[in-house]
Task: inverse folding
């Protein structure tokens, strides 16, 4: 089963709405997990905000952080930040210490930096997530994939929002 | 389908281009990079710098040249550190597809917000310094001497101890093979030899020869032309169009329709436009068909009077002081304005199964690429954007790529290259307008005549709310409050309250040159004059008393420089009157003194003295030009500029009802550059905002009449 994440905001909206789709139920579940207490520790993976750094440390949870091992497909440029398409896949075995147990997508300048948090159960056959996310600004997408052995893979890609260029960052 | 017949006559520009090519010069000038042009010959020392064997240095420019001088100033920043011979420098655009392939190696292409220098200066200078270090290292290795003993100057590396030297053209290949230095040390500003010197523009000679290609000049093989009509009422939709009626018309290739526009593609622009004119089009004007300028004004006025507004700044307790004191009150307003670029919106596109090419006069090649990818359904890697010269930008061709998107959609439908040209009327009626806004000031003066309390209530249409809603929090758009916000409001007022009642209309708004600074400088600097008048103080001296300490020092310095140069301490010449204003914007500080003469119902601006502090002045020659350009644009708006709404649509259509400044009304402009150093400010916009208030203040000095709304033509002050 591939679980799909979504922003907390969207998940919250989904929870309020009657007639939930399967996707929004799963998103709601993921968001619920994201809010759960996790241990502090480890590095901030080069995040640009304190909130993002904190979220990353929480997700990593003290295990070693290793670069790579994640395929992060996100466009270099987007016209607006309203719905930026994004796909993340993590090549990994189905079992053993390198099995992927969780995936986090962090947008390091969003007011709510954890855009998606996905847990993979032992029966998950594919570690792949595709969604559209709302971007507050030009920023980095930081994908983190946690292995069963506690090691955490990290990949990051900057995304330029071309419309944001007309706005002085310091005025916001 | 009609074939495009070959043109029987060459335009003057095409002829000149062809003539140049035949003469062995640049085939198409440096302005039309594309597949037709071979890759730049020479050695790329780094992404910004190519050196040819004959020492010619080609410097890549990432941001767009739209007349503002970036094609000269950006290379100056590189050349200063590269230590190359400026006489051998040429500039060329960084090609977009390669830019994306190389992971945005040339950084941002965005050209707006007066940022081409201030936001690129560090990496441009570093690129120059890194290349210089590599050239020196290559020479040192060749001679077997320590690099520290070598010097670089005027495109030559020398080793004085052994009296050896080598030209950059000889060293480039070896230098390019070296690893770039991990860190570079930039020159101390006192050692600059190029930055700060008035420098002749690199693009003028070509412009004189009509070599640059503007979007309107683009021709590609098998190209057709498109004319377009949009629903006149914003937010309306296309209901029906009589496609059959134009199908058989001579030259017509096809009709392309979208949600709120319809376009005709033909073998010439004239035929496309004519077919469109005869085609019956029905619009569903939607819910805004009754909106007028009067209803918008009432809507904003309600914002001014509303009990609810988002708090921007609250220093001290302005409301308490206002409740007790003698209140001075005034309301100001500013209209919608169109960019009205000389060249209407135009772009050429060609879409095939796996590639999309756009020839665009864009303020951001990256924004055009993102729009082209989205509109074509192809990935970014399939996009090439060929940048043409811009027939004016002013903020219309950057963030908003509606015109490029349409060109791509139409070309995709047509299955061949299409040049989309908006008519002047479409350009006037489908703008991204400077928002309407209104301000109410309430102030109480202290015993010294200075404001003890000042409450500024702003009402108006947020740009960010439409394009970047996440940036508007709790109804507060600080961008709308430019000039009043804590960073840019430098006056010492003990009790200052600033709040904003967002009132969004259906009219699409955008980033008009200097954006919200333009309305807010008018509102702020005129009311400062009103307070000075109420306090019976000289408006220049009044400002001086309000600009205190570290916070006020740079505004004060430009104010002093403008006043001194204009001779404020002496009475204005007989029959002339003066006004003054100051504003800081885009990191620079600028003050104007405007001198006018009044005759019956006609104001003549005789002279503008403008003082600017951009921190470091890179090319004083282009700073003067930009100041003049800002004054032309600002004076046009102050005298005539007004977009009005009727039936939800723009009423103006062309230059007869949206006039431009003519040469007989151009004042003498005297630019005083007072760079204080230590920071990098922009120069493309800061000289625009102080013009309208300085002019309105001069009119008060002449007539005793306060101008609280624009344009002046509305007040019977401009004879047409």
Result:
């Amino acid at each position: 089963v591939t679980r799909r994440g979504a922003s907390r905001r969207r998940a919250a909206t989904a929870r309020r709405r009657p007639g939930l789709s399967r996707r929004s139920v799963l998103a709601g579940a993921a968001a619920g997990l994201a809010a759960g207490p996790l241990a502090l520790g480890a590095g901030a993976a080069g995040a640009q905000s304190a909130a993002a750094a904190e979220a990353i440390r929480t997700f990593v949870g003290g295990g070693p952080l290793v670069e790579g091992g994640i395929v992060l497909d996100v466009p270099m440029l987007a016209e607006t930040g309203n719905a930026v398409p994004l796909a993340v896949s993590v090549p990994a075995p189905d079992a053993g210490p390198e099995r992927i147990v969780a995936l986090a997508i962090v947008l390091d300048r969003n007011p709510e930096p954890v855009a998606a948090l996905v847990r993979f159960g032992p029966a998950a056959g594919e570690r792949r997530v595709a969604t559209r996310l709302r971007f507050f600004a030009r920023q980095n997408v930081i994908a983190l994939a946690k292995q069963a052995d506690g090691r955490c893979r990290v990949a990051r890609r900057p995304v330029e929002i071309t419309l944001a260029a007309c706005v002085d960052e310091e005025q916001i | 389908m009609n074939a495009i017949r070959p043109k029987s006559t060459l335009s003057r520009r095409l002829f000149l281009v062809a003539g140049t090519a035949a003469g062995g010069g640049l085939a198409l000038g440096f302005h039309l990079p594309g597949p037709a042009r071979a890759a730049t010959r020479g050695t790329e020392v780094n992404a910004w710098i190519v050196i040819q064997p004959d020492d010619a240095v080609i410097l890549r420019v990432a941001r767009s040249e739209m007349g503002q001088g970036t094609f000269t100033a950006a290379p100056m920043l590189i050349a200063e550190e590269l230590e190359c011979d400026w006489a051998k420098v040429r500039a060329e655009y960084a090609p977009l597809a390669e830019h994306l392939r190389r992971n945005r190696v040339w950084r941002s292409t965005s050209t707006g917000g007066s940022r081409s220098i201030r936001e690129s200066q560090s990496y441009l200078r570093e690129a120059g310094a890194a290349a210089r270090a590599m050239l020196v290292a290559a020479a040192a290795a060749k001679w077997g001497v320590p690099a520290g003993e070598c010097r670089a100057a005027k495109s030559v590396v020398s080793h004085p101890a052994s009296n050896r030297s080598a030209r950059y053209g000889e060293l480039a290949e070896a230098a390019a093979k070296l690893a770039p230095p991990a860190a570079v040390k930039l020159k101390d500003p006192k050692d600059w030899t190029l930055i700060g010197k008035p420098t002749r523009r690199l693009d003028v000679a070509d412009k004189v020869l009509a070599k640059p290609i503007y979007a309107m000049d683009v021709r590609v093989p098998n190209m057709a032309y498109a004319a377009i009509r949009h629903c006149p009422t914003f937010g309306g939709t296309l209901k029906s169009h009589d496609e059959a009626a134009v199908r058989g018309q001579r030259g017509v290739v096809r009709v392309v329709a979208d949600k709120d526009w319809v376009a005709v593609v033909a073998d010439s622009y004239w035929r496309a436009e004519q077919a469109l004119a005869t085609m019956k089009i029905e619009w569903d004007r939607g819910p805004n068909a009754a909106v007028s300028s009067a209803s918008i004004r009432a809507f904003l006025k309600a914002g001014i009077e509303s009990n609810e507004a988002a708090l921007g700044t609250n220093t001290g307790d302005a409301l308490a002081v206002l409740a007790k004191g003698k209140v001075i009150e005034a309301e100001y307003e500013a209209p919608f304005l169109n960019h009205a670029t000389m060249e209407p919106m135009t772009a050429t596109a060609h879409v095939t199964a796996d590639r999309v090419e756009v020839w665009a006069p864009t303020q951001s090649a990256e924004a055009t690429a993102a729009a082209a990818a989205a509109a074509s359904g192809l990935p970014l890697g399939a996009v090439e954007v060929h940048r043409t010269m811009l027939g004016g930008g002013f903020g219309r061709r950057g963030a908003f790529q509606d015109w490029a998107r349409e060109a791509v959609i139409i070309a995709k439908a047509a299955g061949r290259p299409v040049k989309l040209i908006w008519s002047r009327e479409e350009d006037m009626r489908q703008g991204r307008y400077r928002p309407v806004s209104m301000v109410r000031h309430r102030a109480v003066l202290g015993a010294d005549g200075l404001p003890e309390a000042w409450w500024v209530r702003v009402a108006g249409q947020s740009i960010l709310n439409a394009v970047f809603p996440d940036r508007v929090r709790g109804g507060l758009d600080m961008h709308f409050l430019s000039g009043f916000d804590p960073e840019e409001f430098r006056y010492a007022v003990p009790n200052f309250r600033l709040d904003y009642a967002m009132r969004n209309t259906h009219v699409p708004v955008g980033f008009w040159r200097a954006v919200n600074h333009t309305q807010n400088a008018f509102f702020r600097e005129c009311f400062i004059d009103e307070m000075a008048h109420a306090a019976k103080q000289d408006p220049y001296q009044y400002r001086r008393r309000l600009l205190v300490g570290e916070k006020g020092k740079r505004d004060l310095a430009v104010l002093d420089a403008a006043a001194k140069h204009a001779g404020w301490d002496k009475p204005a010449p007989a029959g002339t009157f003066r006004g003054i204003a100051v504003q800081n914007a885009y990191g620079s500080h600028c003050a104007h003194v405007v001198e006018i003469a009044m005759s019956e119902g006609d104001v003549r601006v005789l002279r503008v003295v403008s003082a600017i502090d951009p921190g470091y002045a890179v090319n004083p020659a282009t700073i003067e030009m930009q100041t003049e350009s800002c004054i032309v644009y600002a004076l046009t708006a102050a005298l005539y500029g007004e977009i009005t709404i009727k039936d939800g649509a723009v009423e103006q259509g062309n230059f007869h009802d949206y006039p431009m400044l003519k040469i007989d009304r151009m004042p003498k402009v005297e630019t005083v550059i007072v760079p204080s150093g230590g920071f990098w400010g922009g120069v493309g916009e800061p000289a625009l905002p102080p013009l309208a208030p300085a002019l309105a203040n001069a009119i008060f000095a002449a007539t005793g009449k306060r101008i609280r709304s624009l344009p002046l033509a509305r007040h019977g002050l401009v004879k047409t």
Observations:
- Confidence is low (pLDDT under 50) at residues 1-42 of chain A.
